[in-house]
Amino acid sequence: MDRTELHAIAERELASRAPVRIHCCMAAGCQATGAAELRSRLDTALAEAGLAGRAEVVPVGCLSLCGHGPLVSIVPDGPLYASVRPDDAPAIVAALQGAPCAVRQVDRNAPFFARQRPVVLRASGSFDPERIEEYIAVGGYQALATVLHDLSPAEVIEQITRSGLRGRGGAGYPTGLKWATVAKSAAPPGDGPRKFVVCNGDEGDPGAFMDRSILESNPHLVLEGMAIAAYAVGASQGYLYVRGEYPLAIQRLTKAISQARKYGLLGAQIFESGFDFRVEIRVGAGAFVCGEETALIASIEGRRGQPRPRPPYPAESGLWGCPTLINNVETFANVAPIIQHGPEWFAAIGTATSKGTKVFALTGNVRNTGLIEVPMGMTLREIVEELGGGTPDGSPVKAVQTGGPSGGCIPAARFDTPVDYESLAAAGSIMGSGGMVVMDATTNMVEIARYYMEFCRDESCGKCIPCRVGTVQMHRLLSGIASGHGSAADLAQLEQLSQLLRETSLCGLGQSAPNPVLSTLHYFRDEYEACLAASKDPG
Amino acid sequence: MVSPSAAAPAQRDRGAPPADNRLKIVEATMKRHQYRPDALIEVLHKAQELYGHLSPELLALVARRLHLPPSRVYGVATFYHFFSLAPQGEHTCTVCLGTACYVKGAATLLAALEAASGLRAGTTSADGRLSLLTARCLGACGIAPAVVLDGTVVGHAAVEPLVERLRALLNPAGA
Q: How far is B20 from chain A (nearest CA, A)?
């Protein structure tokens, strides 16, 4: 495989396409609402209309408006149909020949689409994620070719550093700096691979599905990013850790890896260079704490997912004691676009300290539920009111929750907060991996705090005492308050325990577990006090 | 590979000889991973996929073959939510309790299903017909609330139709 061959594959692929493509979303959300049957009905309808050859049905990745699936998009320049039923297939095919069509259409110029700035999701929903040729046709693996032929590992790291990319898993650590640390860490002596690249796809935040969607819709983009990272840091083996709850993502990744190997884009001597890179999938088994990097390493090594104190950081001593680069799915997905368009292009998007875009899963009580990618710095109001379209019944939005069990609830009064790492932290929440749950007056904030604490209690790995015992106590106090058995002393103890967990827990799970409590206490203290006022045993 | 595992082939003769096809597949999975201890979670995934749950005998076999103390295998099998040490019902109904589903009324939905089936979440009916389970987050937040019924995801799940389906599963004769 060389660059000429890559171009030849892309050209062959483009030439073999029918002039009109019916893109049928086959991501998990649309599949759950009947996309598979719809796809086969569309195929039948095309054949019956005698349009085979002039149009084709293509199963594609996420088309973004997940709450209104199944989605069908006609390319080029055709309509986007929503909530399509299998029975609608003949009408959609007839519309290709100019017949009027009553199937619900969505305006592509609506703010939900028009205000997005897709970088990671650019090609998502425009090709069949199960065929590597389609990925190559949209420019896939060109960044890897560029890196292997034209750039030294140090130059790659320099480009990533200049782009200003920060970790998309939530903490926002500068990606270039992390890569540089792994690159200069000396590998211990021994046989076999001595440095590793790990992709963290253990998306455990309830209410978040960005990584699932990226892995399902564009698996090669993540693999290409991992390969570029491996070249930059000097690794030859990679692991992709995916949640067991995401069977479709696992299936598509498995297929993607085998196709990439067949074309010589993974494996030995990639692009006929001296660079080898192999990737294995590791399937998670349902433990939220495995999103923490040292717990993730333990899990890949086949042990219980329990964290250990840092330092040493995995960049110096990770898998089997070797230097290990761990990045999130979305972080890796940003790498190839940065190489392709240049770090300056990327750095021009976003704010002074948070560059690029962020993918969010916009869910909850919001009209337009789905996956969005917006430039950093857009305000919460723009996201919730303009892209999201407010609540379904037009009632006022009360708050938005970001960052899952480690994040907080931001009230509508603070919706002018721009989404960047620093502003969200200043508002008492975190960027997190990208879950954004919209809440209206029907959601009780004490109940939400209790819900998240129950989650953290169940997911605490049990290794350190502040988290193991503290989450149980905090959950007990919150349950008491929510059910009308709380007292002012309980509230004070809740605040005290919050401080204790923050300061003394071993890992991020325990340290951030009080965040939902503290943010709701800060912004919605009246709801706690209302619970206390209604309490059956005051004191 | 770097994992501390070079001693694996010597153990092939030990342990129970593969009896039925499922055991052969578990054995092949371990062999594909060269009996490396770090493959433990992968092997348990395969074993559970084949048997539906992880019995004490199965755990003991895996421990012997991967040359791991049984405590370590048991520890891993009980640490992760995905692994089940008890057999599951013939049918399963899993209610997602992720935040988006929760905001959209998953708790009410679960309470209705518990009342209709007479089961508490996380348990299986005495006749082994149905397991009522919960999930942390299926990542199907766009179609919340989501429920998985016998492996098929049901989006925008409404209480009434689901209760009907559960009753039908529990009582196929309609008695």
A: 26
C-alpha pair distances (Å), A425 with each of A171, A219, A408, A512, B92: 10, 31, 9, 12, 41
Using CB atoms and an 8 Å cut-off, which of residues 295-324 of chain A contact chain B?
A: 299-305, 319-320, 322
B147 touches chain A (CB under 8 A): no
Among candidate residues A56, A85, A106, the one where a domain is terminated: A106
Contacts of A320 in chain B (CB under 8 A): 2-3
Of A322, A8, A280, which Cα lies nearest the Cα of A136? Answer: A8
DSSP letter string over B67-83? T--HHHHHHHHHHSTT-
Residue A289 and residue A423 share a domain:
no
Spell B109-143 as b/e; 16+ CB within 10 A means b: bbebbbebbebebebbbeeeebbbbebbbbbbbbb
How many whole angstroms separate alpha carbon A414 and alpha carbon A522? 12
Q: Do A207 and B141 touch (CB under 8 A)?
A: yes
Interchain pair A283, B45: CB under 8 A: yes
Interface test with A, best of B40, B79, B149 (most A CBs within 10 A): B79
Q: How far apart are CA B51 and CA B64, in angstroms?
A: 19
Answer whether residue A184 is part of any domain: yes
Residue A226 lies in a domain: yes
Domain boundary among the residues A389, A410, A440 is at: A440
The whole-angstrom separation of Cα A303 and Cα B41 is 8
Q: Same domain, yes or no, for A397 and A420?
A: yes
Domain count, chain A: 4
Please indicate, yes or no, whether residues A425 and A463 belong to a single structural domain of this protein. Answer: no
The domain that contains A382 carries what CATH number?
3.10.20.600
- A365 Cβ under 8 Å from any chain B Cβ: yes
A277 with A165, same domain: the answer is: yes
Residue B40: list chain A partners with CB under 8 A.
Answer: 302-303
| Token code pair at residue B142 | 């766009």
From A152's Cα to the closest Cα of chain B, the distance in A is 26
Contacts with B155 from chain A: Cβ below 8 Å? 29, 32-33, 69
Q: B75 and B143: one domain?
A: no
Q: Torsion angle, CA of A389/A393/A399/A402, rounded to 10 degrees?
A: -50
Residues A301, B38: contact at Cβ < 8 Å? yes
Mutation for testing the A interface, residue in B3, B53, B81, B137 having most A CBs under 10 Å: B137
CATH number at residue B69: 1.10.10
- Which of B79, B99, B134 is the endpoint of a domain? B79
How far does the CA of residue A217 sit from the closest CA of chain B (Å)?
14
**Final residue of a domain: which of B79, B100, B128?**
B79
Q: Looking at the complex, does the CB of residue A251 fall below 8 Å from at least one CB of chain B?
A: no
Same domain for B163 and B98: yes
Residues B52 and B100 in one domain: no
Q: What is the pLDDT of residues A141-194, one digit of tens each?
A: 999 999 999 999 999 999 999 999 999 988 899 999 999 999 999 988 888 789
Q: Are residues B39 and B99 in the same domain?
A: no
B22 secondary structure, DSSP code: H
Per-residue pLDDT of chain B (175 residues; tens, 9 = 90+): 334 333 333 334 444 444 579 999 999 999 999 999 999 999 999 999 999 999 999 999 999 999 999 999 999 999 999 999 999 999 999 999 999 999 999 999 999 999 999 999 999 999 999 999 999 888 888 899 999 999 889 999 999 999 999 998 888 765 4
- The interface predicted TM-score of the complex, written ipTM, equals 0.92
Given a contact cutoff of 8 angstroms between Cβ atoms, the answer to whether A439 and A534 are in contact is no
Contacts of A435 in chain B (CB under 8 A): 99, 141
Provide the token pair at A70: 């199944």
| Cα–Cα dist A90/A37, whole Å | 13
Looking at the partner chain, which of A205, A320, A451 has a beta carbon nearest the beta carbon of B2? A320
Domain around A481: 447-533
